[in-house]
Design brief:
- This protein has about 775 residues and is an alpha/beta fold.
- The protein folds into three domains: about 95-195 and about 415-610, Rossmann fold (3-Layer(aba) Sandwich); about 195-410, 3-Layer(aba) Sandwich (Dimethylsulfoxide Reductase, domain 2), CATH 3.40.228; about 650-774, Beta Barrel (Barwin-like endoglucanases).
- Helices cover about 35% and strands about 15% of the residues.
- It is built from 33 helices and 32 strands.
- A six-stranded mixed sheet has the order 4-3-16-15-14-5, with helices on one face.
- The longest helix is centred in the middle third of the chain and has 18 residues, at about 295-310.
- The two termini are about 45 Å apart.
């Protein structure tokens, strides 16, 4: 078997649109997992890797951060996890001739799909300021270039160090140490664009920006409310937990504008009934809410809870919990009493009866979990919406008891661990004090830039060097055209990468691509084979061991690259032995144990078969480390999203064959799309009102304040049963429509889930190469 990379880009001219599915997984999930794996990796490689993914002696999936159950199955992976492994562990390599044959100008029109399909990067490459091509370079020369450019800056804040959520704890810790020893807190990361709203809200309300549930809580819950999350595509292993929860008597409510297959039904591919029986019905109630209406819904439920307490004093609220552990209740109750039911119905698009049903479900359940993802966080009022989730949970004591709590479901495998390890532009002084004591230096205290502010700083010429530890910032960030123009103003851009993406094509004057090991690959250093660690969505930390040989001899671990870069730039400043930390990662973990709270005896704990769970005050002991020492029930002003007549509210989303900006194929079978991505999903009644037909080609214009319209041309309309007044298009193609300055209050997260758009008939061909923008 010889894998082949495509040499032509793809258009959507042969797109096929069928009816959306009403259940997830089943036989289709197995076939779509294993067929590409065997085709691209071969039988032996596939069996070796698939039997080790998410197992205690294997490697952690590089896809989502869904936690592992205590008792794991032989095939402890989902369809998209298998695709992520296939994507990374492909034996296909980019040949050396590729760099000479393909200029950056010629690559500029290639899609993310085409770029990723070229294979693994196996040697460092460098683009000089006077060239339009990358060319191979040795590691020492690459490190020398980085060191010279960093040391030549007028101030360390002219550099920024971006991090992807796939980086290990060890790499992330070393990376943030390097940035801070250099003298900057410019440590943006991918969380800035997804769950930053979660951290902001939960840190304020309960004193920790992480989940307050364990995996076992899903199996003990009476009611699970899933808001703004599509587990069938983004966290497929969650469906097994939901099925088991239902078997134990739980009810599930889905709150989502689109009908998603995984929230409707599930066929467990590891059970016989997953092939021959009927799907397990997941949602007992499905609320197709208008985009931006979640906060109004939550306030309306809280109003009904308080009204029920007034009718049945002492029987609805958990008065003891509120009195002992909470503050702010009186002000909250007074505010909620004034919520206008008519405004709620307009904001949500739901009926009073639908809201009544959910409120009754909540009040009749002793143990409630509310789970959410970016459908909640990426709104202007995303932080306040999550505070309302916490408010509702606190009213009946649904934090800090089995089967109950707040469950932000992270979409990247170690984005939560990166933050724990210090990758944040605003780490508290307590962490910086410990870091400085451990390594003998005074860390900078001025807060750095996040991802959005980083693009602004690049655009203003304030950041000269941009380093990316994994990820694809240019593909992921909002306002694509502005972001690309900003990155091209940098003097040097550096990417740690396994495969090509848009961030390798849009570069600074100089650019480096540094090839790194994947999580599937064995990492051997002087002390022998090494392991890394990751943290999942429920604060569980465990080891990950590579299983197959590296793709090539020139590929280095992320840790080795960070340490090599730091050594070249800083030498022995402060007596830090950067190169020594490459030899044995235990050295890094020893440092972590003395710096990071909850990570004491880190080496010992991570060698335990199941790893360990980080301490969590709200979950473990109902301790709330807020400014008041109590959980804060908050007052939040409702601000419905305004949408003028003749306009729609757009959300960006992933297709099923996609992980973040990585496109595995051009299919989205759960939504009925095959061989294409240039589509916009619109309710058929909205299409009729706008005078448009199903299947018509349109241009999409986004409208924001007094700025010129942003345009995405040549998209096909797909009549789809979404909430009225709402539309959806794929990320990252539709990022061009999201203004950089349109961000969530407090968190600065791009508002990608409520973009005001208008549609106009178009003559632009659908989906030729990259999306056509203005």
């Amino acid at each position: 078997m010889t894998p082949h990379a495509p040499h032509e880009d793809f258009s959507d001219a042969d797109m096929i649109v069928t009816e959306p599915k009403e259940y997830a997984a089943g036989l289709g999930g197995v076939l779509h997992s294993m067929e590409p794996a065997i085709k691209n990796m071969g039988v032996g490689r596939t069996l070796k890797l698939m039997s080790k993914i998410n197992h205690k002696d294997g490697f952690d999936c590089m896809s989502c951060a869904w936690p592992d159950p205590e008792h794991r199955k032989l095939a402890e992976f989902c369809e998209n996890g298998a695709k992520a492994v296939t994507w990374e562990a492909t034996p296909l390599k980019i040949p050396r001739a590729f760099w000479a044959e393909n200029s950056l100008t010629s690559l500029a029109d290639k899609t993310e799909y085409w770029l990723g399909m070229q294979g693994r990067i196996t040697e460092p490459v460098y683009k000089s300021a006077d060239s339009d091509h990358y060319a191979p370079i040795d590691w020492e020369s690459a490190f020398r270039i980085i060191a010279e450019r960093l040391n030549g800056l007028d101030h360390p804040d002219e550099a920024a160090f971006y991090t992807s959520g796939r980086a290990s704890n060890e790499a992330a810790f070393l990376y943030q140490l390097f940035a801070r020893v250099l003298g900057t807190n410019n440590l943006p990361d991918c969380s800035n664009m997804c769950h930053e709203s979660t951290g902001s809200a939960m840190q304020y309300s309960v004193g920790i920006g992480k989940s307050t549930v364990a995996y076992s809580d899903f199996l003990e819950s009476d009611l699970i409310i899933i808001m703004g999350q599509n587990p069938g595509t983004n966290h497929p292993r969650m469906l097994t937990a939901l099925q088991e929860a239902k078997e134990n008597g739980a009810k599930i409510v889905a709150v989502n504008p689109l009908p998603e297959a995984g929230l409707i039904g599930y066929k467990d591919p590891q059970k016989l009934r997953g092939y021959v029986g009927k799907p397990t019905a997941i949602a007992d109630q499905y609320l197709q809410i208008r985009l931006g209406g979640d906060m109004a819904l939550l306030q309306a439920i809280s109003k009904r809870v308080l009204a029920a307490e007034a009718e049945r004093p002492g029987q609805v609220l958990d008065h003891d919990f509120i009195a002992q552990h909470c503050d702010g209740f009186e002000a909250f109750a007074a505010h909620i009493a004034e919520v206008d039911d008519r405004e709620v119905e307009q904001a949500t698009g739901l009926t009073g009866a639908q809201i009544d049903e959910l409120a009754e479900r909540y009040m009749s359940s002793d143990r409630v979990i509310i789970a959410w993802a970016m459908g909640i966080t990426q709104h202007r009022r995303g932080v306040d919406t999550i505070k309302e989730i916490i408010n509702l949970l606190l009213l009946r004591g649904n934090i800090g008891k089995p089967g109950a709590g707040a469950s932000p479901v992270r979409g990247h495998s170690n984005v939560q661990g990166d933050r724990t390890m210090g990758v944040w532009e605003k780490m508290p002084d307590s962490f910086l004090d410990a870091l400085g004591t451990e390594f003998g230096f005074d860390p900078p205290r001025k807060h750095g830039v996040d991802a959005v502010d980083g693009i602004r700083a690049l655009n203003a010429g304030q950041i000269k060097v941009w380093v990316g530890l994994g990820g694809n910032l240019i593909g992921a960030i909002s306002d694509t055209n502005l972001a690309e123009a900003a990155m091209r103003k940098a003097r040097l851009s550096v990417q740690f990468s396994t495969k090509l993406n848009r961030s390798h094509v849009v570069t600074g004057e100089e650019a480096l691509i540094l090839p790194v090991l994947g999580r599937t690959e064995v990492d051997v250093q002087r002390a022998g084979p090494q392991y890394i660690t990751v943290e999942d969505s429920v604060c569980a930390v465990h080891a990950s061991h590579g299983q197959i040989p590296p793709i090539g001899p020139e590929v280095r671990s992320e840790i080795a690259v960070v340490a090599g870069m730091a050594h070249a730039t800083l030498g022995d400043r402060h007596g830090i032995d950067w190169l020594g930390m490459i030899d044995n990662y235990d050295t890094i973990r020893d440092h972590i144990s003395r710096v990071v709270p909850g990570c004491e005896n880190f080496n010992e704990k991570t060698r335990q078969r199941d790893g360990f769970i980080l301490p969590n005050g709200p979950r473990d002991e109902r301790r709330f480390d807020t400014a008041t020492g109590k959980a804060r029930i908050t007052v939040n002003e409702l601000e419905p999203v305004a949408c003028p007549p003749g306009r729609l509210l757009l959300q960006t989303l992933r297709s099923h064959d996609q992980f973040n900006t990585t496109i595995y194929s051009l299919n989205d079978r759960y939504r009925g799309i095959k061989k294409g991505r240039s589509v916009i999903f619109v309710h058929p009644d909205d299409l009729a009102e706008l005078g448009l037909d199903d299947g018509q080609t349109v241009d999409i214009f986004s409208e924001w304040k007094d700025e010129p319209d942003r345009v995405l041309r040549g998209f096909r309309t797909v009549a789809f049963p979404t909430a009225r007044g709402c539309a959806a298009a794929y990320f990252p193609e539709a990022n061009v429509l999201v203004p950089l300055d349109s961000t969530a209050l407090e968190s600065n997260t791009p508002v990608s889930k409520a973009v005001v758009i208008r549609l106009e008939a178009s003559n632009t061909p659908v989906g030729v190469g990259r999306p056509v923008t203005q």
